[in-house]
Amino acid sequence: MRVLATIKIALRALRRNKMRSLLTMLGVIIGVSAVICSVSLTSGATKQIEDQVSSLGESVVTVFSGNFTQGGMRGGWGSAPTLTVEDTDAILNSVPNVVAVSPEVRDREQVLADGMNWNTQVMGESPDYPQIRNWPMASGAVFSDQDVRSLAKVAIIGQTVVDELFPNQNPLGETIRIRNLPFKIVGILSPKGFNLFGQDQDDIVVVPYTSHMHRITARTFVNDILVQAANDGAIDKVQNDITDLLLTRHHSKEQDFTVRNQLELMQMVTSTSKEMGFLLAGVAAVSLAVGGIGIMNIMLVSVTERTREIGIRMAVGARATDILIQFLIEAILLSSLGGILGIILGIEAPGCIKFTTHIFTKLGIPMSDALVQFANSPAVTPLVAVVVAFVSSALIGVVSGFYPAWKASKLDPIDALRYE
Predict the structure, then answer these.
(1) pLDDT tens for the chain, residues 1 to 420
(2) Nearest CA-CA partner of 297 in 16, 25, 33
(3) pTM of the full predicted structure?
(4) C-alpha span between 122 and 145 (Å, rounded)
(5) How many CB atoms lie within 10 A of CB 367?
(6) How much is the CA Rg of the chain, to the nearest whole Å?
């Protein structure tokens, strides 16, 4: 009952100075809303990136053609054709925990069908490609291993190619021409949309890699090799085993290839959103600190203004701990109410930021692409962030209010009663 009575007294004291209380809470409101907003945008951007990386395949290791040294010339990743189909077979047969591989060759080609034409990316892959890329078929089926062995002129196509070459019709069984060679469409890939780098993933034609290498481009090397590990825990081991195997096969002391996995890609592309999140979190921390200083300042003023009241309460039997608890509760109420309002504002803030960036874009006000992409990320507010923000605001009340409350509890009742 004593605590409830103290809370009522504290609320009554705050209501007497509504505007001052609101202005005191403003620092906490801004700080907490900044925390919630930054966490929401960072979490949303990270989740979006994780979803897009997952759409590229799970537990995938990619081997790129890479470095070369010849005479006085040197080159890096992708500068020389150093990977072969035989390397792919060796990886599949010799590296443990590998469940699927696909040698990859790619070129942009003008594709014709039914009087229409479209410039698209033509990929040479193995039948494992949709499995590795976690890319289900919308209709039809993937070409077979027999199609690879026989250099069959068959293809699966993405939704963008369907829309451009076969509007309002079913393309299954139809023929497209690549470099004047007829390829029969046996499957259609499910729509995926744009990837992390803004490329349309559905703008694609996939043919057997042998057909691409021997019929379309007449090449002997592959651009890269896609490898699917058994699970995420096996990725590092698979990556190291592939490196050792290819060093042995290529009889080279230097790596003439580059091995990367999806986790490394995710870390690379999430760095910008994390940096933006840290920046906002720093602003939020400063705002919370300023809010705490504001609460301490106002509570010290309140103690001075209410010195006579404190003396009267002590004269009628209030103990020093009662006075300390009263002012401490007032500080905690100020910060907690500010925290609640800040949480509400922080949850709504991402929508306001998106609207603002949209208006700025329409007005031609320059903004960095990273900032626009970060602001337009779908906001995800974790429950733990809300709880931490509220607890932090309450702790600020305790820390900021303790000294004024302690000072009030140490007042001499006689001196307090004489105070004017």
Answers:
(1) 466 766 776 677 777 777 877 877 887 888 788 777 777 777 777 777 666 666 666 788 889 887 544 444 445 554 567 899 999 999 999 999 999 999 999 999 999 998 889 999 999 999 999 999 889 999 999 999 999 999 999 999 999 999 999 988 899 999 999 998 999 999 999 998 876 666 788 999 999 999 999 999 888 899 999 999 988 888 889 999 998 899 888 886 677 888 888 776 666 666 666 676 677 667 777 777 777 788 788 777 777 777 777 777 777 777 777 777 777 888 888 888 888 888 888 787 766 666 566 666 666 666 656 555 655 666 777 777 788 778 877 888 788 777 777 877 777 766 666 655
(2) 25
(3) 0.62
(4) 19
(5) 12
(6) 33
Residue 261's SS3 state is strand
Pairing type for strands 204-208 and 116-125 reads parallel
In 3D space, the residue among 107, 111, 69 whose CA is nearest the CA of residue 256 turns out to be 69
Task: Please give the distance of CA 169 from its chain centroid, rounded to a whole number.
Answer: 37
Greatest alpha-carbon span in the chain: 105
| Burial class, 407, CB count within 10 angstroms (exposed 0-12 / middle 13-18 / buried 19+) | middle
For 179, phi then psi, to 5°, come to: 50, 40
Exposed, middle or buried by CB within 10 Å (0-12, 13-18, 19+), for 290?
middle
CB of 336 closer than 8 Å to CB of 387: no
Q: How many other CB atoms are found less than 10 A from the CB of residue 264? A: 14
- Number of Cα atoms under 13 Å in the Cβ half of residue 268: 9
AA identity, residue 355: F
CA 79, chain centre distance (Å) = 31
Q: What's the rounded Cα separation, in Å, for the pair 138 and 94?
A: 34
Strand partners, 120: 109
Burial (Cβ within 10 Å: 0-12, 13-18, ≥19) of residue 405 = buried
User: Is the distance from CB of 122 to CB of 263 less than 8 angstroms?
Assistant: no
3-class DSSP assignment, residue 180: coil
Angle at 124 between CA 107 and CA 218, to 5 degrees: 70
Any idea what DSSP says for residue 97? T
Place of tokens 């209501």: 15
